[in-house]
Amino acid sequence: MARKKIAAAIKAGRVLVSDGAWGTFLQKKGMQPGECPELWNIEHAEAVEDIGRSYIEAGADMIESDSFGGTSFKLKHFGLEGRVAEINEAAARISRRAAGPDKWVIASVGPTGQMLVMGDVTEAQLYDSFKEQAVALAKGGADALCIETMSAADEACLAVKAAREHTKCEVICTFTFERTVNGEYRTMMGLSPTEAAKAAIAAGAHVVGANCGNGMERMIEIVREIRAAAPSTPILVHANAGLPHNVNGTDVFPDTPADMAKLVPALVAAGANIVGGCCGTTPAHIAAIRQAVDALKK
To answer: Where are the alpha helices (DSSP H) in 114-177?
Structure first.
């Protein structure tokens, strides 16, 4: 039986659980500083698949893919810009195997590092880069494309449009916010959660939200603002395991699985429909979130 659309499952009343961090997991499996994470889809496919499977076994309804830096602009840093299609298709295919027939693959699409406002790149160049990645991820078996960690509306909207116009995938678009001294939330480029959500929806995103930058507690405030701006659009949250502390040169994320799980009811009450993790989260965090989500039904 074909999987339902994610938005349809949410409309039917389900609260869904997403996965956790991938980058730190790859490091635990031996990825060295300076290595290309996306090349692991080719050279260490079994290790990458194990990450996805670990989150499925923890109770995730969906998993991402090892493709966050999979645009030509990012892969160029490693001399791999000519292998965009190969690498991204492999990334989606690996997550598809790990997810099995019943769970969703929401393939990761991160920012390019290029800024339109600075004249680094043209809109056409950005669009074409996102198109190339999106087509490959869809070919590899992605159900949705998770355009994430965005800070600029123009780049995010070009990614959404490229995905919508060249694939049949659902499109998720999340931004990263930081709290200002005034207690408001803004992206690095100055967008509020309201502005970011409205721009992504206007471009065609099926799901909007926030990832990285904040722990679960601050995500509650962000989700509340997005929900006020977008009353009927599904919202996804990938929260960090708290705000990091630097210990001997290493970022340590303090929130335990129990710490994150206890905030799930408030996050869902604020308007979140999909709850998962970002930096510092592990399968144990996702298992705790799964239990918290399941408890909401009782």
So the answer is: 123-139, 153-166
